[in-house]
TrEMBL record:
<dbReference type="GO" id="GO:0008381">
    <property type="term" value="F:mechanosensitive monoatomic ion channel activity"/>
</dbReference>
<keyword id="KW-0812">Transmembrane</keyword>
<dbReference type="Pfam" id="PF05552">
    <property type="entry name" value="MS_channel_1st_1"/>
</dbReference>
<feature type="transmembrane region" description="Helical">
    <location>
        <begin position="190"/>
        <end position="208"/>
    </location>
</feature>
<dbReference type="InterPro" id="IPR045275">
    <property type="entry name" value="MscS_archaea/bacteria_type"/>
</dbReference>
<dbReference type="InterPro" id="IPR006685">
    <property type="entry name" value="MscS_channel_2nd"/>
</dbReference>
<keyword id="KW-1133">Transmembrane helix</keyword>
<dbReference type="GO" id="GO:0016020">
    <property type="term" value="C:membrane"/>
</dbReference>
<feature type="transmembrane region" description="Helical">
    <location>
        <begin position="159"/>
        <end position="178"/>
    </location>
</feature>
<keyword id="KW-0472">Membrane</keyword>
<feature type="domain" description="Mechanosensitive ion channel MscS">
    <location>
        <begin position="222"/>
        <end position="269"/>
    </location>
</feature>
<protein>
    <recommendedName>
        <fullName>Mechanosensitive ion channel MscS domain-containing protein</fullName>
    </recommendedName>
</protein>
<feature type="transmembrane region" description="Helical">
    <location>
        <begin position="113"/>
        <end position="138"/>
    </location>
</feature>
<feature type="transmembrane region" description="Helical">
    <location>
        <begin position="25"/>
        <end position="46"/>
    </location>
</feature>
<dbReference type="InterPro" id="IPR008910">
    <property type="entry name" value="MSC_TM_helix"/>
</dbReference>
<feature type="transmembrane region" description="Helical">
    <location>
        <begin position="88"/>
        <end position="107"/>
    </location>
</feature>
<dbReference type="Pfam" id="PF00924">
    <property type="entry name" value="MS_channel_2nd"/>
</dbReference>
Length: 298
């Protein structure tokens, strides 16, 4: 017959294994807590030192320029670069000590996760710097385009500047996300489709709206050499003398009125040449009679 298992021995081995695990884990827990407390202290120390140094060297002046950007003002937030960088340093140092603490504790999964966060911070800082510089460049381009368009008396100068700002800002955001290690393939594809659609819509709308202008301009190239100022012509029921020729129209003096005729009409209508303008009638000189005995010559 088979002997029954030693239940008491099994239970004792299980309890002893648990007790040994607890006693072996307890020193690691204390060491992990000590490392973590030390990390909190050093992180606060480095953060305060960075805040004082950055404030004294005038880094916040660059942040003030960033706060002047209209896009940032609309967010109703104030950016202080010294505080932002000091916070980044605080969490960076703290994450380093959290990594050491989890390694001391022996939890491998948490250690790998913290290490990935620590490796992500430098890329995040580079992306933030790129975004800040990009916003300032976009705002400078917006002001330049608005000023230039206003100098040419373009009514929608401000809207044009806003479009340029949005375009540059979107490019900068995509670049910053890519620098941070975020996959931007879908965003880039959507952006390319958006830009392509906008260009196609603009080209189509501009082409349809300027169709008549282009027709008149091309007609001017072919017809301008056939007409000259002072020439009399007749188009349908309109007859007059050419007083002006430009790239899109000709002006006819029809009696007391001036008629404007598009250049494209000269290609589509029958034009009758009537020759040069008729000279103005001059009054015949009146005979001059001298009284008898008076010589007109000295």
């Amino acid at each position: 017959m088979q002997s029954s298992p030693d239940i008491y021995g099994i239970m004792m081995n299980t309890v002893m294994s648990f007790v040994n695990s607890v006693f072996s884990f307890f020193p690691r827990l204390i060491g992990s807590a000590v490392v973590l407390i030390l990390g909190f202290g050093l992180a606060r120390l480095f953060s305060r030192l960075a805040l004082r140094v950055l404030s004294r060297i005038g880094l916040d002046k660059l942040g003030e320029r960033l706060n002047e950007v209209q896009f940032i003002r609309q967010l109703q937030t104030e950016i202080k670069l010294s505080e932002v960088i000091s916070k980044i340093i605080y969490y960076f140092v703290l994450l380093i000590f959290i990594t050491a603490s989890t390694e001391t504790l022996g939890v491998e999964a948490i250690s790998k996760m913290i290490q990935s966060l620590v490796a992500f911070i430098p890329r995040l800082i580079a992306a933030a710097i790129m975004l800040q510089i990009g916003i300032m460049v976009a705002d400078a381009l917006k002001k330049a385009v608005t000023t230039l368009a206003a100098s040419f008396n373009i009514p929608s100068a401000r809207n044009l500047g806003t479009v340029v700002f949005a375009f540059v800002l979107l490019v900068v955001i995509i670049s910053a996300l890519s620098q941070a290690g975020i996959n931007t393939t879908l965003l880039e594809s959507s952006f390319n489709l958006l830009i392509g659609g906008a260009i196609f819509a603009f080209a189509l709308g501009y082409g349809l709206s300027s169709k008549e202008i282009m027709v008149n301009t091309l007609s001017s190239i072919y017809s301008r050499s056939q007409f000259e100022i002072g020439q009399r012509i007749r188009i349908d029921d309109i007859e007059g003398t050419i007083t002006s020729i430009n790239q899109s129209t000709i002006l006819l003096q029809t009696g007391k009125d001036i008629t404007r005729i598009p250049m494209s009409t000269l290609q589509n209508k029958i034009v009758v040449y009537l020759g040069a303008a008729e000279p103005e009638e001059q009054e015949a000189p009146q005979p001059h009679f001298q009284p008898d005995g008076i010589d007109s010559h000295p």
